[in-house]
Amino acid sequence: MNDYFSNVKQGLGDAVERQAHLRWYARLWRAPRARPLVVVVATLVIATPAVAAVSGWFSPGKPNPPGPVSPVTLYGVVKPGHSRLLQLRVADEQGGPPWGLRVVRTTRGDTCVQIGRVEAGQLGSLGIDDAWHNDREFHAISPDARADIHCGSTDAVGHGFLNGAIDGETASVDLGGDWQSAIKIGGCQLSGFGGGSSRPDCPAGANRIIFYGLLGPDAVSITYRNPGGRLSTQRLLRGVGAYLLVFPYNAKTCAEYTHSWDSSHSCNTSTEGGGPTPPVPGAVVKVTYTDGRSCNLSGPSPRLVSRYRAFTRKAARELLGSDYRKREHRPISAKLRAEFERLLVQFAAGQHLTVTQLNHELGPIAPQCPAVGWVAPKEPKITTADVATPIHIKTLPTGSYGCPNKLKLPDACSGLGGLATREVPVEWSFKARRAVTNSRSWYEYSVRDPGGRDCDEQGAGSSYSTFHNIRAGQLLRFSQFFAAGCPGTYEITVGYMPYASPANPDNGGGADPGHDGTILVGSASFTIH
Amino acid sequence: MSAADDHDAELVARVARGDRGAFEQIYDRYLPLVLRWSLRETGNRELAADLAAEAFAAALIAAPRYRASKGAVGTWLLGIARNKLRESRRHHRIEDSARRRIGLDRTELTDADLERVDELVSLEAGIVDLLDALPPVLREAVAQRVIEERSYEEIAVDLRCSESVVRQRVSRGLRTLRSQLEER
Q: Per the CB 3.0–4.6 Å rule, which of A97, A154, A241, A260 could disulfide with A117?
């Protein structure tokens, strides 16, 4: 069957093999695909009278209303008076007001950016491409608008560190977002996006791919790839290390910047943010800092990668035989490894390189930039003794529960499907000894189930991280339904994250209390008989 | 930790060493779980499919860091999915940073894919064992669609009926299986 899930399985399976291949032979960057030159359209300019003249054809319209927000949840709300439109302007290929970047600070300590078109010193969206009923007016975006905001860490002296990419942004500035959108202004969707949206497909040329970031006060310039591959260097806005790149978005640029376009796939709207590293793969290939240091994000030359891949295939065939595909992921003997090293030296020499130089050229698989200039918060070191507290567990009577149900549990349907099944409702609680006042700090728990092949299916095991402010001394309550047919002892472990590192904003490995920077608060267990 | 958990933990370790077959076993086995959880949390089949794909991509990256002491593989995967959802809520879009990192494109879902979401979330543990209890016409349709993963068109040709009839049979069959599972 050639469906979405089969394609995902195929793609991830390929990645597993690729990783193994890389590990076995050497570090190897995924090669960017060579693409023909496409039209270069984005140019960074400082606001000039010429730009203002071009933008004049948009008259002021109704401002964008602010969306529903909470000052104590997720990244919070924009603090009044804490927004600044940076002096960055990027011309758009179709003319009109240039693109700009506004930096805001939130009630939960995040530094965020908003991206839009700039007219008369204001950031906004345009009434084109089915947005705002095509009124061709400029609609200012309020700094406290919830939509289209991208957030990251703030250091102890107020510098923000975040980077991101938006693929498929509309030229009108898509404030609707894909999900939980706060503002409904219409607009178009990326052609072929599907998904049952009522929006019409965007006309050709209406979409952009945008790269943005705040690299901190010590970053002085970036080197980036224009569509087609030409490199440019841009000095960053002093004090904040800001950059903004806007390119046309189409099959070719999607391929160039995401390495993923082919006839069976489409490139959809996406974003990523946080951290001091510009998106990889992406447009930025190098960041240079004041002390002369640099962070190289460029891949090796496609030609070198192609030759290296051919070499590894040939070497594998020579060393492992024609059925090397079946054997290449297995451990190899020291003798074979030595033989491979010998061939590698020969290959490198053929490229006029040493093996060290070759490894340097091929680069790391997933480069990361350090948070240069980051000033860590001055907080006393927190240990388990500072946060440890008893975890109380209450097991409710077993019964048949579906979602919704009449139990007034803190997580009303956690662990349940829609239909009623025999479940054991369990609630656990503890008093938070330390407050959580920002988005970089949280409490988390994990539930370790007693195992059993059939029981995993009920969601018996899980983990969770809070994403809202918590007072010191506040009682935190959680609950979950556990399948009555999965007997055994369940262990709940709670942890506290005092302040997550900016270099690792994405806790992609799942909550793991007591590890990865979190401090163990306590644990408790219960048994289902 | 049970023998089954040990087996799955070993599978994750093999994934970290680059064993594609191990990954496929993990994916096949846990996709319904992750998908069901994602659907419950997002309430949207498309978002759920997107989130599940991102969670598996993140798991692939995190596989070398997986320790059996963290808990069962299902727990670990749901933890990843939950954190991905948290990050997605921050950004108002389902994250795709893990997929981008490993070069996996985000693809669009067709109507058939959305139907597949419904089928996968219906794949409760033990449901296949109950297949024999279904009337033959329903059993055949469910088996061909869910186990053999054949298209509705192929099944319709095979069973000499229309695609809509096949869809009805699969839907009724899965509903019957679920209710039988709940009575157990």
A: A97
